[in-house]
Design goal:
The complex is a heterodimer.
Chain A: H1 3-24, H2 30-35, H3 42-53, H4 56-69, H5 74-98, H6 103-110, H7 114-147, H8 151-201, H9 206-209, H10 220-231, H11 243-259, H12 261-264, H13 273-309, H14 319-326, E1 330-332, E2 352-354, H15 358-361, H16 363-366, H17 371-409, H18 415-438, H19 443-468, H20 474-496, H21 517-535, H22 541-550
Antiparallel strand pairs in A: 1-2
Chain B: H1 3-34, H2 36-39, E1 43-44, E2 47-48, H3 49-79
Antiparallel strand pairs in B: 1-2
The chains are: A mainly alpha, B mainly alpha.
């Protein structure tokens, strides 16, 4: 069978599976819709969290980013895994004990204020919408590259699938589809990696393979460093970013991960506090399988690519080259008209531009793996994008139906009314997300990475202080969140969109890039919160008692309506 | 549970957090970033050590840290009769 038939078959099977699961596990109460009735097994929740977390960016783009950035790519590897340590140790168990439905629930109750609740809802919506637009686009891209349908048709197919299972199944439905999606995506990621590792190093474990010697007896990393030097790139195993920037970006990604509402809410779905801890451990273990393989794929793909194309005659290039040339993801411009590919660091002499996404998408073709493996990668990419999109859409719908409608606008709404509101807001959210997917605003690509900075600058300090600092009051927390997120937005607009006078790399404060600035904004949030709270009245007795209860793990209530 | 006991439980919890988070900080920020050049002079197999920590080692340690934390807390909960 050819690649395209294989892809239709695999995508068809996996989509049927997701829809089947959604019908089997549809939600019948708000508790089931928001938090899956709080009865998910910790391992199942770990699997679901891993799929929820790993997006199209993790699956498709990350290995490619590392492949081009070398050591500098470590910020994603450490940043997007280290956040789980913070989640497990500082947030998940306590938020589970608190036992409501959403992150703004916690902020609103802990800071006894609807202003705090609304600020938290706004932050959740900003973070989730910037993120979800990228996912829908990812679905469209996979469809267009593998199935040769129009990108927009791809987005619309993706919208219908997500609409169906997120709206019908709510959190309960997406939890079990995410479990299935994790299995699909990790299988799709590992199979080519293992094949290629065996081909290049004889070692079936990619994590060890990229530190081994190739068929010529030279260590793979040494060979790659040599190739980089020859072509004028910076050494693969050393970075080109400044140390302070790497430090701050890593911190912003870690803290941002721990502050993302669609990740936090997954820990509300388990039965008890010790299960919340356990599922954080399982989640990170499942995530680590992909995250420790990605840098290996990066090295294999980079070496393979350079060796195949560098100084090769154009007509001698393998088939995959022209296949991907037609998609525009590889372009060759024979500047010196010698009919040979010059791939070098010097932009005026370089003749080859390669989209970073190719490193994962074309890797199986470059390594000449069978057609079904190539099709598997498409199914995996779709699983990664859909699972994350569904998780985000649920946060958006819960923010509207629970935090705004039920908690502020109409507290007397019936259980059934709220469930209908939740489903309707999910439908609206899917349509908006799809619209962004079809008409991606320029800022989407720039802001997805910055969603982490926004989450770090707003939620993380408010939640951590709410648990670990009993004296923290509403005045401090609200001021901290507002100043944190505004400063982050300002810095991002100034240096990413050229507003407020714009600026270049040389104008960065302390040499910190916008991607790393979330860390600065987070520190400022902490300082503002603590200083302002010490000049304003301490929180009421009942609130201090809430803090005492969430610190103790036992007597967790069932999913309760309030 | 008495207030006294609650305070003691919380204190022990905070002590665990301090220890585990120091390790978290050392393997990633110290080994993977601040001292990466010094560690890169040491080579294990094909890996320069600093590079290995940044792209592999830190992640393994993160996973281990969470599972150690789960064990410590389960023991602590038992000791104070707080396990459900």
């Amino acid at each position: 069978m050819d690649i395209q038939t294989w892809t239709w078959v695999l995508v068809g099977i996996t989509f049927t599976l997701y829809i089947g699961i959604a019908i089997w596990s549809r939600a019948s109460s708000t508790g089931e819709f928001y938090v899956a009735g709080k009865g998910v097994h910790p391992i199942a929740n770990g699997l679901a969290t891993a799929a929820d977390w790993m997006s199209a960016a993790s699956f498709i783009s990350m290995a490619g980013l590392i492949s081009f950035d070398g050591y500098d790519g470590s910020v994603y590897l450490m940043g997007w895994t280290g956040g789980y340590v913070l989640l497990a140790l500082l947030l998940a168990p306590y938020l589970r004990k608190f036992g409501k439905f959403t992150v703004p629930d916690f902020i609103g109750d802990r800071y006894y204020s609807n202003v705090a609740r609304v600020v938290a809802v706004m932050c959740a919506l900003i973070v989730s919408f910037t993120y979800v637009a990228g996912q829908m686009r990812g679905v469209g891209l996979v469809f267009s590259r593998f199935l040769e349908v129009d990108i927009n048709t791809g987005v619309i197919i993706g919208m219908f699938i997500v609409l169906f299972y997120a709206v019908l199944g709510g959190m309960k439905g997406i939890t079990y589809t995410q479990v299935a999606q994790y299995c699909v995506l990790i299988f799709a990621f590992m199979v080519p990696a293992i094949f290629i590792s065996i081909q290049m190093t004889g070692n079936p474990i990619p994590q060890l393979g990229f530190g081994s010697t190739g068929t010529d007896g030279v260590y793979l990393l040494d060979k790659l460093n040599g190739l980089h030097q020859e072509l004028g790139f910076h050494e693969y195993t050393t970075g080109s970013k400044s140390k302070i920037d790497v430090f701050f970006i890593t911190a912003a990604l870690m803290v941002g991960t721990a502050g993302l509402p669609h990740v936090i809410v997954r820990f509300f779905t388990v039965k008890k506090v010790s299960d919340a801890r356990k599922s954080a451990g399982w989640a990170l273990l499942f995530i680590a399988i992909l995250y420790t393989t990605a840098p290996a794929i990066a090295v294999f793909a980079r070496t393979n690519m350079i060796e195949t194309v560098s100084n090769t005659k154009y007509e001698d290039l393998p088939n995959w080259f022209s296949n991907w040339e037609t998609t525009g993801l590889i372009t060759f411009d024979d500047k010196n008209n010698d009919g040979t590919v010059q791939y070098v660091a010097d932009a005026s002499k370089n003749e080859l531009t390669i989209d970073k996404d190719i490193m994962v998408l074309a890797n199986p073709e470059i390594a000449r793996l069978p057609n079904w493996v190539i099709a598997l990668v498409a199914a995996g990419g779709l699983a990664a994008a859909l699972s994350t999109a569904a998780g985000l859409l649920l946060v958006i719908s819960a923010s509207v139906s629970h935090d705004i409608i039920k908690k502020i606008v109409n507290p007397k709404i019936t259980e059934n009314g709220e469930l209908i509101a939740a489903r309707l807001s999910a439908v609206v959210a899917v349509i908006i997300a799809g619209w962004f997917g079809i008409n991606p605003p320029d800022f989407v690509a720039a802001t997805v990475a910055l969603a982490f900075g926004l989450a770090a600058a707003s939620f993380f300090p408010a939640i951590v202080l709410g648990i670990f600092y009993k004296r923290m009051n509403k005045e401090g927390a609200i001021a901290g969140m507002i100043i944190g997120i505004l400063l982050m937005l300002y810095y991002m607009m100034k240096f990413k969109f050229d507003w407020f006078g714009g600026g270049t790399k040389n104008d960065w404060w302390f040499g910190i890039s916008p991607e790393g600035f979330g860390t600065v904004a987070m520190f400022l949030n902490f300082i503002v919160s603590i200083v302002i709270s010490s000049f304003t009245p301490e929180p009421p007795k009942e609130v201090q008692e809430i803090v005492d209860t969430i610190r103790i793990p036992n007597n967790v209530g069932e999913a309760h309506e309030h | 549970m008495s207030l006294e006991k609650q305070k003691k439980y919380w204190k022990e919890n905070l002590r665990y957090l301090a220890i585990l988070l120091s390790i978290w900080f050392i393997v990633s920020y110290v080994f993977g970033i601040l001292l990466v050049d010094q560690l890169n002079t040491i080579k294990i197999g094909g890996f320069k050590l600093g590079f290995w920590f940044a792209q592999q080692g830190a992640i393994y340690v993160f996973v281990i840290l969470i599972f150690v934390y789960i064990r410590l807390m389960n023991r602590l909960d038992k000791k104070y009769n707080l396990d459900d």
